[in-house]
């Protein structure tokens, strides 16, 4: 792997834990034993580094999840395995970074949006239904965040089971989920702080 490739892989690993704002030329130089000018020469500016990191993470994601093809459950299974194996130490790079940049217009957000649009488009083609694609993406992201936050790999099997149920459910027959009222959530939150 060339030095630019090594820089981008490390940048994606850092971003999966600390977000893209945690990726700095100085930090990469220290962690990779390079000079700041050596890292800077590959990108020129932090925003360029962040965008290149998004593209590098997309290539890794595609190789891990998409390239092998298959049916919806095959792709979802590879997505869950990609997160579970911690290809990126903080879980799915895109679950972390799309939250970080969702409300921040600019070129980095545009790069993340383009990736996400392509991902959702793939899910829609595999599902044949935009609503189901949205739900599948939400379930996958939930598995990643729950497993990372609670260090609980059982989230992957629970989501795998939920996906099997949802994928076989006829469109228009979606389940409704009962949620606790706001006061019970607030009560629980204040008792845990």
UniProtKB/TrEMBL annotation:
One Gene Ontology MF term: DNA binding
PROSITE patterns the UniProt entry points to: HTH_TETR_2
Residue ranges: DNA binding: 24-43
Domain of life where this protein originates: Bacteria
Annotated ranges, domain HTH tetR-type: 1-61
SUPFAM superfamilies: Homeodomain-like, Tetracyclin repressor-like, C-terminal domain
Upper taxonomic lineage: Bacteria, Bacillati, Actinomycetota, Actinomycetes, Pseudonocardiales
Protein name: Helix-turn-helix transcriptional regulator
Keywords of the record: DNA-binding, Transcription, Transcription regulation
């Amino acid at each position: 792997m060339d030095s630019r490739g090594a820089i981008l892989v490390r940048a994606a690993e850092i971003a999966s834990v600390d977000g893209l704002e945690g990726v700095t030329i100085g930090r990469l130089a220290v962690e990779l034993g390079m000079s700041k000018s050596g890292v800077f020469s590959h990108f020129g500016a932090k925003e360029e580094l962040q965008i290149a990191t998004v593209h590098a993470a997309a290539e890794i994601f595609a190789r891990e999840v998409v390239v092998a093809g298959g049916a919806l459950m095959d792709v979802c299974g590879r997505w869950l395995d990609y997160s579970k194996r911690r290809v990126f130490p903080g879980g799915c790079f895109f679950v972390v970074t799309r939250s970080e940049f969702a409300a921040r217009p600019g070129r980095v957000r545009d790069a993340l949006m383009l990736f996400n649009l392509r991902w959702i488009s793939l899910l829609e083609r595999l599902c044949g239904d935009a609503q189901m694609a949205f739900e599948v993406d939400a379930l996958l992201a939930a598995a990643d965040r729950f497993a990372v936050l609670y260090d609980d790999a059982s989230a992957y099997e629970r989501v795998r089971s939920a996906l099997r149920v949802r994928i076989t459910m006829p469109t228009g027959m979606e389940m409704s989920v009962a949620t606790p009222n706001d006061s019970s959530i607030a009560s629980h939150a204040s008792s845990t702080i």
